[in-house]
């Protein structure tokens, strides 16, 4: 591993952490900054999830998170595969959250699969596919455990 790849790994990890902070603080402009303008985001594996453009999904998240009082994403086990100015990134996530009207925490986990590209302003995701593997205490009553 050379110095550039080490720097790229740190920068991509920062992008993933910024993604988590953006969702948990409901900062949708910050969330958009993680992605390229023409990015696609696919959350369709989650209960009631959907896929679409960056801006369509940001609007959907803003609407959906009106029903979430607390969330805290943990992103771990980041794996990288580089090819020039592109990278395929897989990272595990664990997300405890509290939904309006529910007394117990809900939790979910899975993998984020990002197709990243180096831009003039740093690494950005041009495609995110969330692979939701499990959901406990779903507000929809559809636990996957």
From TrEMBL:
Matches recorded under Gene3D superfamilies: 3.10.450.50
A Pfam family assignment: SnoaL_4
SnoaL-like domain mapped to chain residues: 4-128
Protein name: Nuclear transport factor 2 family protein
Lineage: Bacteria, Bacillati, Actinomycetota, Actinomycetes, Mycobacteriales
């Amino acid at each position: 591993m050379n110095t550039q790849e080490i720097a790229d790994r740190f920068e991509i990890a920062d992008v993933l952490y910024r993604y988590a902070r953006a969702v948990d603080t409901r900062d949708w402009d910050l969330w958009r900054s993680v992605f390229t303008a023409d990015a696609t985001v696919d959350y369709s594996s989650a209960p009631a999830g959907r896929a679409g453009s960056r801006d369509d999904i940001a609007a959907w998240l803003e609407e959906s998170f009106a029903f979430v009082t607390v969330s805290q994403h943990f992103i771990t086990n980041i794996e990288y595969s580089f090819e020039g100015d592109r990278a395929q990134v897989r990272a595990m996530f664990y997300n405890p959250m509290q939904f309006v009207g529910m007394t117990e925490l809900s939790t979910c986990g899975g993998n984020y699969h990002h197709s990243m590209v180096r831009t003039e302003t740093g690494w950005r995701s041009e495609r995110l596919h969330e692979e939701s593997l499990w959901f406990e205490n779903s507000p929809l009553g559809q636990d996957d455990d």
